[in-house]
Write the structure tokens for this entry.
Amino acid sequence: MECYQVCHDAWTYYIADSLRQLILTGLGQPTPKDEIALGAMDENRIPHDPGTKSIYHRLLIETPVETVYKALTTAEGLAGWWTPDTKAKPEIGAILRFGFGPSYFKNMEVISLKPYSRVEWRCVKAFEEWIGTTLTFELEPQQKGCMLLFHHDGWANYSAEFASCSFDWALFFRSLKFFCEKGKGFPYPEFNV
């Protein structure tokens, strides 16, 4: 009985979404293979330096963990809650590109993917303070959906950019929650409406 809701939500996702897509388009959404997803994880993972600063956010998203993972790993998902100008592939080593206006881009390298449990990026292009930081999304199934623990590690100092970034992440996670639960998020530039 303890896992009833988690199992119910997972099977609902696989039958209502994945199987439906397989029937309609010929392409379902199966669970990615662990051996492919974990292949380079340990060698690419950056240990957290205890001398640096981190941004943390934790929130419950009332949908199956599979839905949240898809929103964090696919171009369509990321465009639905972070920025419509998104180019992304759910592959280790892929460089994800996020546009915020005509002349500002953030590029992230995918350094870890563990299906339905962990996504980790390293920032390779953005504001100077972002470069080299890591962004980790940890997902845990809960009775009411998915618990997301996010940490953005590796900041050299507490600064105005650090504070602004922490606030903006809170707004974007509100967008992610709405996107996953209701099908419509508030991506850039709508995120602070």
